[in-house]
Amino acid sequence: MTVESTAARKPRRSAGTKSTAGKTTTARKSPSTDPQLVQLLTPEGERVKNAEYDEYVAGITPDELRGLYRDMVLTRRFDAEATSLQRQGELGLWASLLGQEAAQIGSGRATREDDYVFPTYREHGVAWCRGVDPTNLLGMFRGVNNGGWDPSSNNFHLYTIVIGSQTLHATGYAMGITKDGADSAVIAYFGDGASSQGDVAESFTFSAVYNAPVVFFCQNNQWAISEPTEKQTRVPLYQRAQGFGFPGVRVDGNDVLACLAVTKWALERARRGEGPTLVEAYTYRMGAHTTSDDPTKYRADEEREAWEAKDPILRLRRYLEASNHADEGFFAELEAESEALGKRVREAVRAMPDPDHFAIFENVYADGHALVDEERAQFAAYQASFADEGGH
Amino acid sequence: MAEAVTSKAVTSKSMALAKAINESLRRALESDPKVLIMGEDVGKLGGVFRVTDGLQKDFGESRVIDTPLAESGIVGTAIGLALRGYRPVVEIQFDGFVFPAYDQIVTQLAKMHARSLGKVKLPVVVRIPYGGGIGAVEHHSESPEALFAHVSGLKVVSPSNASDAYWMMQQAIQSDDPVIFFEPKRRYWDKAEVNTEAIPGPLHKAQVVREGTDLTLVAYGPMVKLCQEVAAAAAEEGKSLEVLDLRSISPLDFDSVQASVEKTRRLVVVHEAPVFLGSGAEIAARITERCFYHLEAPVLRVGGYHAPYPPARLEEEYLPGLDRVLDAVDRALAY
């Protein structure tokens, strides 16, 4: 396949054009040739200057660069482990972030401890940056809980499965920060599919009207299950912000440095009281939507192969090597650390106990509820009736 | 009967419930150019459960439409298309995702016929795969039928088997009223004989799927199969249970429930949805009114708890199962 570079800025025709379905898989945009795309590292690992955003990564040390690399490698390793745990039946489902490591690590590392993150259900890399133990993310995918972590311990909200809902929560949280006179900021993650939801449009409206300190971080991974972005929008998504009265930027989502720089810029705007920003991280979902999905039904292998050349980890490795910021020892050590993480996750999942049956009735209300108490008692009596019969 | 057997040899074939709906949609697309299919991933992918598999390929993108990811938009535009003379069949991908569209369904779809003094008809079918038992993550296993049955202006149905799924879909599409069509997703792969020529009974009529004399089990959708298993297990203990498949929740065929209860004098209602203010509550109230002097026991209900649908590893405890229904049967028979 050849990537159609000249058409990079041209919005595609949406539904109703007969040829759309057949062509979407062979004529995709190339981020590296998009003049509007913020990129600091090319797919070949070359550092390119950017007058607007360089200052946000100007002081970055080799140690910090290696840190970003390590974050991406470990996140990918964790993700791969989770996928195989699903295949082994240890998880019911897994939503892989493969290919989106740079978007998540770059934006996640841009946040400050007091900032607040509202994820979708795929932000495993952001969770990592926030210090959420990866094994905590797996409970809901194993089916032992519906969330399971305390959002306030890392300022990392629970995963949200209903598409787009969390953008309004993020906006409200940001409105609260303003009311409190604090200089924290909020970052709300969502995808290209979610951009069609009413909740997302409403969150843009509210955040603009109330000048809320929120960054809308849209990972445009090109696919909402089987539907390409063209089924959601005629204009590039970052341009939506303009109509709501705040800036929108498209960043190379496979460039961790660019994602870090642009997100820092957007968060600092928020802290300064300049209101919301939309960041569209242009990236690619390398895997299936979830382990239940079969992408061979709707997209061509060639498209994936073209994006493999833009791999986020590979390009930072090339840069680290070319600039002598990392040696063989570093990569070897990371490889070992990576395997150890995989092992730890595997063991933790296998050891994760099934919840107590009575967990059904726990935490339904903060102040209790007579009907829940009554049903819990009935359930207990029912379960006890089996014990009386010598165990079923 | 002889005639039915002859025609069965020609027109009846075994198919899974999902395939039966697929065939029914195909027939509707073939027979009425105004029928449209709309939803997320219904086109090229054929839906996440493959219920619309192959339809876009055969009927084109203008009739089998991959919509933006926006449920309110799907139902809202379906209303507009219906105003323009189309008959949209829209898919909500999972039960827990219907709520962005709930406003359009409740405030617009359900009421426009009455508001227009009968001038406007909205023949929209909203397909919703519902219910648990498939080990899914949250918002993928819910049974919100009572939330729709409570709204006047909507008809609410749920087939339990492939044959009903085929014919009830035909009838739902032909209906001039909006129909919320709840598909029992855990039964999508269950096969049954579907006779595509047999003339079906009315859409909103219940069916006795097993005759009995000691107690009536009323269910619909995914719980009918369970109740048949319960009846079989009870038969081994010498109890004769009748199983009534409601098929329609609104309107609800109280006459058939009454006729069965007048015979058996005992009633247990089973659904996955929470018991509290669920359809079983309405059935219990009505049957108590209608059959007060026939009943030998209070009407009992088996269903979900007043708690969020639990994570997958607890759903067996939450959902009505063989033992829980048998327990209710025993309690009803003990009066």
TrEMBL record, chain A:
Give the source's domain of life in one word. Bacteria
Compositionally biased, Low complexity: which spans?
A: 16-30
Is Oxidoreductase included in the keywords of this UniProt record? yes
Biological process GO terms, please?
Answer: branched-chain amino acid catabolic process
Mind listing the UniProt keywords for this protein, alphabetically? Oxidoreductase, Pyruvate, Thiamine pyrophosphate
- UniProt cofactor(s): thiamine diphosphate
Domain Dehydrogenase E1 component positions: 70-351
InterPro entries (alphabetical): Alpha-ketoacid_DH_E1_comp (IPR050771), DH_E1 (IPR001017), PdhA/BkdA (IPR017596), THDP-binding (IPR029061)
> Which residues does the annotated region (Disordered) include?
1-37
Q: Which GO terms describe its molecular function?
A: magnesium ion binding; oxidoreductase activity, acting on the aldehyde or oxo group of donors, disulfide as acceptor
- The protein here is known as Pyruvate dehydrogenase (Acetyl-transferring) E1 component subunit alpha
Organism in which the protein naturally occurs: Streptomyces guryensis
Starting at the broadest rank, the lineage of the source organism is:
Bacteria, Bacillati, Actinomycetota, Actinomycetes, Kitasatosporales
This protein's gene is called pdhA
